[in-house]
Design goal:
Layout (H helix, E strand, L loop, with lengths): L10 H9 L4 H9 L2 H15 L15 H21 L5 H11 L8 H14 L2 H12 L5 E4 L15 E5 L4 E5 L7 E2 L10 E10 L2 E11 L12 E5 L12 E5 L2 E4 L9 E2 L5 E2 L9 H31 L1 E4 L6 E3 L4 H36 L6 H29 L11 H8 L9 H20 L27 H28 L4 H6 L2 H25 L5 H21 L1 H5 L6 H18 L3 H6 L5 H4 L10 H10 L10 H11 L4 H6 L1
Parallel strand pairs: 1-5, 2-5
Antiparallel strand pairs: 2-3, 3-9, 4-8, 5-6, 7-8, 10-11, 12-13
Helix pairs in contact: 2-3, 3-5, 4-5, 6-7, 6-8, 8-9, 8-10, 8-11, 9-10, 9-15, 9-16, 9-18, 10-11, 10-12, 10-15, 12-13, 12-15, 13-15, 13-16, 15-16, 16-18
Length: about 675
């Protein structure tokens, strides 16, 4: 359980936990992969909770940006040292430890771990790895991934930074030729790193060969001064991420050795001859990995917001249900349930989806390491859309959770603003969401063309061959199987409609690109439907194939159905456009929604408890395990820096001269 030791719990919360009809511990073990995995997670959480070095001196929201940066740097460097001391090598173990030690306090060396090191490992030659990895793993070299520019982000082919090979000196000359070519936004580039992996247009023998990666020193390893020809700095305050020095970089005729091009796949020989890679998309492996991680990470953000909002809704009482009666728990209002329960279901859906695509990524990546590159395109088509779909939907639902907490949700005391500003950048970094939807759309268009030619498709798009004349068999029980079929029918119809529209426009005389440009919004909708179908099927399969006990399985089936049923009602036009669902079946789905809200109600607190987040990780007055919300809010208010003085200096400087002097006798009467 998320509470460590014995605590006195708010009576309403205690009642909620007592009335749950499944075992929370069983579900927690199901989420995290078994008893041993849960115990391991809790051990690492407790290590972080009990470490005095990881305590914040004051509330995160009350720190200046510089204080947030220095606090995060201190904590994350300490955790990096402890990870080495504890010999943690599993990515999952390291995440559980750091998540608890500095939750939503983004690491100033995070990109070093998440992008710089993986890229070096995957794209560096054996010699490059022997030379640089030991230094990077010990943080003697700290790097970032410098891709995004002031003028270009997701459109990688449009990046302007150049790396021109000089065969006489056997060096690359790096240049930022325009204002818009400066690297802009890379994490930790401003003040922290001393190296970067640079994405630049490769020029050799008078020809441009497109984007390639280069290992570039930026600062002196001893003095940390920027090197000649290198201008870099912080880009200033942002919506969130105060602990990160996102930076800019301008390169002016910076020379690096030929060996600093990452040449595991593509190469430039000493004489300038270019050797192309076996697959042009292989250099995007790090971006794919980050997109895979994003699906799981945004689901965790949503899960934590749900823990806070659901627990608070059980504690908060508001308005008499009957005159003279007690105020009701707001979780008893159906409108509150409709805000929160689908959000809880979504958190579960994306968590299991994130786990599944991470498994797929590891399998395909293992094949890539063995030289089998045939599934790279499939992986890209899967992850690009899911990254966009998960981040858009989870961030919207986090905001719903905040609103469900009423006015207190607006306060940093709730913990939700801290979660939100950590989650929301996922919609635009590592690929802007609309652009990523369209990348998956191009993949779906190719798949649809293959279907027309009778070719076999990978499993997750095999539904595109569905017979669209078949109508839904959905009945009063609203089975998971009927819901999966509904989503796959919807997606198949929408992909076909978009693809057919392109074909029609081409027949009318438009070029393929012109036809595409006139169909992009239709394809975005189709891609959303495709991603939605994948999530519903993945969640359903996870529940159906589980070895859960009957009580826990029943609850998870209800949660899965709620996610799917709510999605149908939110996108009803898509499901009835071709008559797939009849009006009677729509009535059935609507009734099922209200039934599911009632079914989940007794288990709502237990469902969020199962996520097993300790109070330190949540950092919320509203989401405390013990439910002592109002005392926590009072304590938080008292700790405000503005309360250090009863009368602020600004009173004497600004207010007092305006007021003039008040008659003493009048003041005494007050």
């Amino acid at each position: 359980m998320a509470a460590r030791g014995r605590v006195t719990v708010n009576a309403d919360l205690a009642k909620e936990r007592k009335n749950a009809n499944f075992d929370v511990e069983t579900l927690t073990n199901f989420i995290y992969g078994g008893v041993a995995a849960t115990e391991r997670r809790r051990y690492l959480q407790d290590v972080a909770i009990n470490d005095p070095v990881l305590e914040n001196n004051k509330a995160w929201a009350c720190m200046s940006r510089e204080e947030q940066y220095e606090t995060a740097l201190r904590k994350h460097l300490h955790m990096a040292k402890r990870i080495e001391e504890m010999k943690l090598t599993e990515e999952r173990d390291m995440f559980y430890y750091t998540e608890t030690g500095a939750n939503h306090e983004n690491s100033p060396i995070g990109v070093h771990s998440s992008m710089f090191l993986p890229t070096l490992r995957k794209q560096g030659t054996e010699d490059q790895k022997r030379r640089y990895l030991p230094l990077a793993e010990k943080l003697e070299i700290i790097g970032t991934y410098a891709q995004t520019e002031l003028g270009h982000g997701t459109f990688i082919r449009g990046l302007e930074t150049t790396a021109t090979y000089d065969p006489k000196s056997r060096e690359f000359v790096l240049q930022s030729p325009t204002l818009t070519s400066m690297k802009y936004w890379p994490g930790h580039l401003g003040k922290t790193v001393n190296f970067c992996i640079l994405m630049a247009q490769l020029y050799t023998s008078g020809k441009c060969y497109g984007m390639h990666t280069f290992l570039v020193p930026l600062r002196d390893l001893n003095t940390h001064q920027s090197l000649p020809g290198v201008e870099l700095g912080d880009i200033g305050p942002k919506f969130g991420y105060g602990s990160n020095d996102n930076g800019y970089l301008i390169l002016n005729n910076v020379r690096i050795p030929r060996e600093n091009m990452l040449m595991r796949y593509s190469k430039v020989l000493e004489d300038g001859t270019y050797v192309k890679p076996p697959n042009a998309k292989i250099s995007y492996g790090t971006m794919t990995l980050i997109r895979v991680r994003i699906v799981a990470n945004v689901s965790r953000c949503l899960a934590q917001a749900c823990v806070i909002a659901v627990r608070y809704s059980a504690v908060r009482r508001q308005t008499e249900v009957s005159p003279g009666g007690p105020e009701a728990q707001i979780i008893d209002y159906q409108t509150q349930q409709h805000k929160l329960f689908p959000a809880v279901a979504m958190a579960y859906a994306f968590y299991f989806t994130g786990s599944e695509i991470y498994r797929i990524y590891n399998r395909i990546n293992s094949n890539v390491e063995q030289g089998k590159l045939d599934q790279i395109g499939d992986l890209h088509g899967l992850t690009a859309g899911l990254k966009a779909f998960s981040s858009s939907n989870c961030c919207t639902s986090i905001e719903v959770c905040r609103l469900a907490c009423g006015g207190h949700g607006y306060s940093h005391a709730s913990g939700i603003p801290k979660i939100y500003v950590d989650a929301i950048p996922n919609s635009t970094y590592e690929g802007e969401n609309t652009v990523l939807y369209l990348q998956t759309a191009r993949y779906l268009l190719k798949c649809f063309t293959k279907v027309q030619m009778g070719e076999k498709l990978p499993g997750f798009v095999s539904y595109l061959g569905t017979d669209l004349t078949v109508k839904s068999t959905l009945k009063s029980d609203v089975s998971l199987e009927s819901l999966v079929l509904a989503y796959e029918h919807r997606a198949a119809r929408m992909v076909k409609a978009a693809a057919t529209n392109i074909q029609s426009l081409v027949k009318e005389g438009l070029s393929q690109q012109q036809a595409w440009n006139k169909t992009t919004q239709q394809f975005v909708w189709a891609t959303m439907a495709h991603c939605h179908a994948y999530v519903v099927k993945t969640f359903s399969t996870k529940v159906i194939t589980s070895n859960l006990d009957d009580e826990t399985r029943k609850v998870m089936v209800a949660v899965c159905k709620l996610y799917a049923v709510n999605g149908i009602l939110e996108n009803l036009g898509d499901f009835i456009q071709d008559g797939f669902l009849s009006s009677g079946q729509v009535d059935t789905v609507t009734r099922k929604l209200t039934y599911l809200l009632d079914e989940i109600r007794p288990n709502a607190v237990a469902l969020v408890d199962a996520f097993d987040y300790p109070d330190k990780a949540l950092d919320s007055c509203l989401g405390r395990y013990d439910g002592d919300v109002y005392q926590a809010l009072y304590d938080y208010a008292k700790a405000s820096p503005l309360n250090k003085k009863d009368v602020l200096d600004s009173f004497h400087t600004y207010l007092s001269p305006v007021k003039g002097k008040v008659d003493k006798s009048f003041s005494a009467k007050l």
